[in-house]
Structures are given as C-alpha cells and as structure tokens.
Specification:
single chain, 302 residues, alpha/beta, seven-stranded mixed β-sheet, four-stranded antiparallel β-sheet, 37% helix
C-alpha cells in the first residue's frame, strides 16, 4: 500500500525509494521530496514493535551483530568502542558541570563514564530494558535511572542526549514536546541518527546495502534538512550539525565488491590508516556521511 502523504511532515510529494525492507515482507521505503526523509511503510503496529524488541537478541544475531544472547555486562563491553567518537564530537556541547540526561541510554556506556569522572553536576539515564537499566544503576552509583522519559519530571536539564533513538520513534512529535519540557532555559537537545546522506545510499546506490540497511523498526532515516524541519515544527531551533563517517573505506569496498557488511583485514592493511582517515574527512566535508548529529534548543522558554 503506497502512502498518500509523508507520515513525518504531511506532504503529498512521496515517491517509492526502495521496494524491500530487511526480513519484513510487504513493506517498502519511500522518499519525501518536501522534508527529505526516507521512511518505511507501512509502519509497524505497536504490538509488533513490542514483540520485536522482546526478541531483539534474535534480531541482532540474524544481522551478525552477536552470535548468542548477551548479558548486560557483555552488551556494555560490546558497545564501549563506539563511545570515543561521541565523546569527541559532543565535548563542546556538554561542558563540565552541566546536568545531562540520556534517553535510550542502554547500559550507560555514554553518560555513565561522564558521571563517574565527575564531569556532570547531575546525570540521569532513561532505558526501558530492565536488565540494562539495572546494570547502569549498579555500575554508576548516583546515576538516576528511569524506565520512561516522563519519570524525569519535574527535573530540568542543561542537555538531553538521544543517540540512535529518534529513528525508532514512529510519532516523534510527542517525544520532542516532552523533551522540551525537560530542558532548562537555554538547554540543548542532542540527537544522533543514521543519515540519509550515507554514501552507500546517496553516492554509490548499493542495492545489497539497501536490502540490509532498511529495517522495520527504523521508521525514518533523517538527513540534516529533515531534522531541521521536524525539530522546527516542534519548537526547536538548530544550533549545529555534526557529520560523522563511522564506517571506513574498506567497509564500503566490501559492500560494493562482495555485497556484504564488514571490513577486510588485508585490505585494511593495504589502505592504511591515513588513507581511510582522509576518505572519512572528505565525506565529512561533503556532508555525505553515515551518521549525523543535530544540536537544538527550544525557541521559546518552557
């Protein structure tokens, strides 16, 4: 069933983008010319979404992320390497002494160390998965841990951070309005999402990658313009965008030559770090990266 309008902005200028969604027959991907978002349609029903997350370990195993169910400690260890680029990119936006809440913070990989190092005056984590939330609370004493963002009220924070969360929210309007109510005057909402400018989509048009990339629980793939428009419609102004290329040139060559994810050890050695870093930097300068951060502030005092 083809959508009549974009579920994000309501515009009627919607066209087919890709005919398949990973392991989800009957769904396809569409592009909105008005706001620039890519979206999966039809969207998952709430019950199907809950069932998917209940069995999320199976989903990760099918995609090659894990090979067996994980404990919370194992999940924490697996996610640890990804935090370096986030800390580097977000350091200017999270000054020492700020009060910060992370939404969808998992086991506490990002906000937990900032709190443990004494960088923050107050810190909170929102995570619906009880084992992950309990792990974070035990590992980082004093970190406020909640199962739902509404539980943070009436606290106010200098910054809210949501890393790879927004794309999972089918109706982002109420979520953004809730975030605005949790920000102190002049506060910042920091979002990280996969980017529609991903070079394997926007430059190389890699069919194998598209078949793997689009997943039913990722309702939207945002670009800078789509984020600006969405947040603007809900009372936020953009302060900055940061474009980051997470995956290296060797990963892109594997997709283009073999149609599969992952790098290649001999190829990594041949290319060398300087070549791969230069490739990432050229993509960043062109704003053609797989990941985008948006930093926003409410336009009116809450």
């Amino acid at each position: 069933m083809t959508p009549e309008t974009c579920p994000l902005c309501g515009a009627a200028d919607v066209t087919p983008y890709w005919p398949r969604v990973w392991q989800s027959p009957g769904r396809a991907v569409y592009a909105c010319a008005a706001c620039g978002v890519l979206f999966v349609w039809p969207q998952l029903e709430p019950g199907a979404t809950a069932a998917l997350y209940t069995g999320y370990a199976g989903h990760l195993a099918a995609r090659g992320v894990i090979d067996r169910p994980e404990t919370a400690a194992q999940t924490f260890a697996r996610r640890a390497p990804a935090q370096g680029y986030r800390r580097r990119i977000l350091a200017p936006y999270l000054p020492d002494g700020a009060s910060v809440a992370e939404i969808g913070g998992g086991c506490g990989n990002f906000i937990g160390p900032l709190w443990a190092e004494g960088r923050l005056s107050a810190a909170a984590l929102v995570e619906p998965c009880p084992p992950h939330r309990e792990f974070a609370a035990a590992r980082f004493p004093g970190l406020v841990c909640a199962g739902d963002v509404a539980e943070l009220a009436p606290r106010r924070f200098d910054a809210l951070v949501a890393l790879h969360v927004l794309e999972h929210i089918a109706q982002p309007g109420p979520f953004l309005e809730c975030c605005a109510g949790l920000l102190a005057p002049g506060g910042r909402l920091i979002l990280e999402t996969p980017s529609a400018a991903d070079p394997l989509l926007s430059l190389y048009d890699c069919a194998a990658y598209k078949d793997f990339y689009f997943q039913p629980m990722h309702h939207y793939v945002y670009g800078e313009d789509a984020l600006r428009r969405l947040l603007g419609a809900h009372g936020f102004a953009a302060l900055a965008f940061e474009h980051v290329q997470r995956y290296p040139l060797s990963n892109h060559l594997a997709w283009l030559s073999k149609g599969r994810p992952g790098g290649d050890g001999p190829l990594d050695a041949l290319l060398g770090g300087a070549c791969q870093d230069a490739y990432r930097e050229r993509l960043r300068a062109a704003r053609r990266t797989d990941t985008v951060f948006g930093i926003f502030t409410p336009t009116v005092r809450q």
